[in-house]
Amino acid sequence: IDLFEERNYDAAMAEFQRAYELTRNPAVLFNISATHELTGHFVEALDAMLDYERRAPAAAVAQRRADVDAALGRLRSRIGTIVIRFEAAGLDVRIDGLQRPPSTGNLEIRVPAGRHRVSLAAPHYQAREAEFDVSGGSTIVISEPLVPERAFMAVECNVPGAEVLVDGRPLAS
Q1: What is the tens place of the pLDDT at every residue in 23-56?
Q2: Strand 98-99 vs strand 79-95: parallel, antiparallel, or unpaired?
Q3: Residue 137: how many CB atoms within 10 A of its CB?
Q4: How remote is the C-alpha of 152 from its chain's centroid?
Q5: Cα atoms found within 13 Å of the Cα of residue 4, Cβ hemisphere only
Q6: How far apart are CA 83 and CA 78, in angstroms?
Q7: What angle do CA 21, 9, 108 make, to 5 degrees?
Q8: What is the reported pLDDT for 154?
Q9: What CA–CA distance (Å, rounded) separates 32 from 45?
Q10: pLDDT interval class at 166 (50, 70, 90)
Q11: Left (φ > 0), alpha (ψ -120 to 50) or beta: where does 126 sit?
């Protein structure tokens, strides 16, 4: 608490997180949320406040209801969502250079309001990168699928008149 009051938020966060690891006291989640919010980590702050609301005793939450509701409102207004609405096996999604867990697609990723660089890549597809301005409470939908890579092949055959099929379709004979 002293570190927090001294505005040494990085050190306070380390102490709050360690305290929570050791005690699992949900009251610490309230402090973790406040510290994340002050350092601009709005998604993490929202997650911590929602965890506090779920895990703390109902009487404690009721006592802090006005503060909890105010924090939830502030945080939700500072978070937008980037939605990936297509599928590609082994889809690699990076937002601002940070890799998200591998997926096949159809993701919803919460981000703090602001400009974000989204990079998408998957095996056998052309990678794509774009920047998006995301405002609080808004949703950006990326629905255009990745473009398959073009492949070339050469076939040599010593059998006269052989038929060449690719994906079941004749290409040459």
Answers
A1: 999 999 999 999 999 999 999 999 999 999 999 9
A2: antiparallel
A3: 12
A4: 35
A5: 17
A6: 17
A7: 70
A8: 77
A9: 7
A10: confident
A11: beta
d(CA 131, CA 133): 7
Q: Which amino acid is at 156?
A: E
pLDDT given for residue 21 in this prediction = 96
Amino acid occupying residue 160: P
Task: Tell the residue number behind the tokens 């040599």, with chain if given.
Answer: 156
User: Residue 88 and residue 146: Cα distance in Å, rounded?
Assistant: 8
Tokens read off for 81: 């969502």
pLDDT in tens, 66-97: 999 999 999 999 999 999 999 999 999 999 99
Look at strands 139-142 and 79-95 and give their pairing.
Answer: parallel
Rounded to two decimals, what is the model's pTM?
0.77
What's the gap between Cα 154 and its chain centre?
A: 42
Interval 108-136 mean pLDDT:
96
Name residue, tokens 């929202």. 46
Whose CA is closest to 61, among 34, 29, 24, 16?
A: 29
